[in-house]
Amino acid sequence: MAIKSTIFKANLNISDMDRNYYGEHGLTLARHPSETDERLMVRLLAYAMYADERLEFGRGISADDEPALWLREYSGEIRLWIEVGLPDERLLRRAGNRSAKVVVLAYGGRSMEAWWLKEGAAISRLQNVEVLALSDAQSSGLAALAERGMDLQCTIQDGQIWLTDGPNTVTIELRRLSGGEQ
């Protein structure tokens, strides 16, 4: 018998002063049995960073044809494809051909550095792909916020992100590895 996903519920209040986006979102996230709290919370961070009425979570780790999150236009066109972790360059090339913009939120400490050394040159040549990196301390801090029921506040200003559950706050400054404004 297969192990089922664990359901997490999050009430996420977003104040994004950089994009003038303010909203409250009741989210249900399914954590795949092979997914870590760290990856789950990086997906939640990605949602907060790109929040929009049409932003949706993909089917998860087992779906190669869908991203972690995506934003589709009403016409069905994919405006934004978001991956978390350390995706293969071929996957990002295919995603770039299907969507207007691809964003990767990379994390993983030393394994992330090794991934970037191996894949970075090829990924950097992709026109519509942006790669942002979280430090090991930042992604670990996010994982520490994970609970089955979360009430979180996310504030984004001048490229800095603060995610808090009340007593605990994680401060995030993403490092741009490729794409976007260099």
Mean pLDDT: 93
Helix content: 25-40%
Q: What's the total number of strands?
A: 11
For the termini, the CA-CA separation is: 48 Å
How would a crystallographer describe the biggest sheet? 6 strands, mixed
CATH architecture: Roll
SSE arrangement, N to C: EEHEEEHEHEHEEEE
How does this structure look, described?
The chain is of the alpha/beta class and about 180 residues long. The protein has one domain: Restriction endonuclease-like alpha-beta roll fold (Roll), CATH 3.10.640.10. It is built from four helices and eleven strands. The chain has helices spanning about 35-50, 90-100, 110-125, 135-145; strands at about 5-15, 20-30, 55, 70, 80-85, 100-105, 130-135, 150-155, 160-165, 170-175, 175-180. A six-stranded mixed sheet has the order 3-4-5-6-7-11. A five-stranded mixed sheet has the order 2-1-8-9-10. It is globular, with a radius of gyration of 16 Å. The termini are far apart.
Would you spell out the secondary-structure blueprint of this structure?
Elements: E1 6-16, E2 21-31, H1 37-49, E3 55-57, E4 69-72, E5 78-84, H2 89-98, E6 99-106, H3 110-124, E7 129-133, H4 136-144, E8 149-157, E9 160-164, E10 169-173, E11 175-178
Parallel strand pairs: 1-8, 5-6, 6-7
Antiparallel strand pairs: 1-2, 3-4, 4-5, 7-11, 8-9, 9-10
Helix pairs in contact: 1-4
